Amino acid sequence: MTDPSLDADALRERTLLTLTTARARTTLLTSCVDGPDLTAQHSPLMSPLVWDLAHIGNQEEQWLLRAVAGREAMRPEIDSLYDAFEHPRSERPSLPLLPPAEARAYAAEVRGRVLDLLEKADFHGTRLTRAGFAFGMIAQHEQQHDETMLITHQLRKGPPVLTAPDPDPLPLSTGPAEVLVPGGPFTMGTSTEPWALDNERPAHRREVAPFWIDTTPVTNAAYQAFIEDGGYDDERWWTADGWAHVRRNSLRAPLFWRRDGGQWLRRRFGVTEVVPPDEPVVHVCWYEADAYARWAGRRLPTETEWEKAARHDPATGRSRRYPWGDADPAPEHANLGQRHLRPAPAGSYPAGESPLGVRQLIGDVWEWTASDFLPYPGFEAFPYKEYSEVFFGPEYKVLRGGSFAVDPVACRGTFRNWDYPIRRQIFSGFRTARSEAA
């Protein structure tokens, strides 16, 4: 969302488009398979698709119809079924979930009432409603679950049910492999982005030493070189926890890869294909990203370094909303929104590069950083501590930048994602960095 000073009619129109875009994607992801695929658990790491569908509706009801509009609960008996903290994913198939038709009807009824509410919403009231924050929070929540459901589709066995065009072939970058990000202060986080979530706030100054960073994410070809050099068999490159994880789980390559003679194949949304060498590597965990960086004589960037590379404009000293400037993402800037079902080749999207020439910081693959997920100075949980606060600590590593599966409403230069360092089913890749003197 670009401007908090948009008049009420423009904000209403923008909010309507954002909610409608999210619901169209939810519908696509839950209508392309039949009932058994909706109710099945395709991986213990993921919920049944039908749980996500009703959960989306339940969260929308709780925050927009109850918290904002003050209305009575429509289905209070289902609240606990769709409480993500009360029931871990592995248990959700055994719950008395709403069947697909009932889940669709419930989500549709909630949405109808929300659209009525939006027509007369007050965007200048409480902190929850100011600039349409609650509506934006719900749109982001739905799009985050849409990405989760897309992950479930990737884990699902069977023939492909989703289609999308490949990214347009574009001239790739012929520039340097890395650039120097100058040292000095920059403003991290935001206090002005109207739909930013609590962990992105508040804006604060950070001092950063000069460092070098890759101009593109690490590619499949580069990662294959690590594999072929025995990277998974050499304890030198791994942290103690990472090495134990590799040995315990017999990791040999990114998730969904398999060796076939002299080539690597991968499974992507039901299609088996040769691993494309020029695409950013995807479906690697933090331990794998960290080991590759060590093998390459480099390291993962810290979260602060990543954000400075993505937002800092050396000419003005200010922090931009995105690498390319303050304008909302457009197709020429980044691979977002499930427009494609794969990352674009490394070096794509010259219109989206940063002032220093770093590309694909937004979209394509989530990028692991070296940092634990921690609050910023002055952090305040809002509107509920379970969004961010309960996850702060060394158990989670920060990912930045979004992926091809992320909608622009849930992706900003300040947006923070986090996960366990063992996670590989997510659309995660990385780029590397090094200190100036290294």
Distance between the ends:
39 Å
CATH class group of the largest domain: Alpha Beta
| CATH topology term of the largest domain | paralog of FGE (formylglycine-generating enzyme)
Number of strands: 12
Please, what is the CATH homologous superfamily of the largest domain? paralog of FGE (formylglycine-generating enzyme)
* Overall pLDDT score: 96
State the shape. globular
Order of helices and strands: HHHHHEEEEHHEEEHHEEEEE
Q: Provide the β-strand percentage band.
A: 5-15%
Q: What gyration radius follows from the Cα positions, in whole Å?
A: 21 Å
Please explain how this structure is put together.
The chain is of the alpha+beta class and about 450 residues long. The protein folds into two domains: about 10-155, Four Helix Bundle (Hemerythrin (Met), subunit A), CATH 1.20.120.450; about 165-438, paralog of FGE (formylglycine-generating enzyme). The protein contains nine helices and twelve strands. The chain has helices at about 10-30, 35-40, 50-70, 100-120, 135-155, 220-230, 240-250, 285-295, 305-310; strands spanning about 180, 185-190, 205-210, 210-215, 255-260, 265-270, 270-275, 365-375, 395-400, 415-420, 430, 435. The strands form four sheets. A four-stranded mixed sheet has the order 10-9-8-11. A three-stranded antiparallel sheet has the order 1-4-12, with helices on one face. It has a three-stranded antiparallel sheet with strand order 5-6-7, with no helix packed on it. α1 packs parallel to α5 (about 135-155) and α3 (about 50-70) packs antiparallel against α5 (about 135-155). It is globular. About 45% of the residues are buried. The model has no long low-confidence stretch (mean pLDDT about 95).
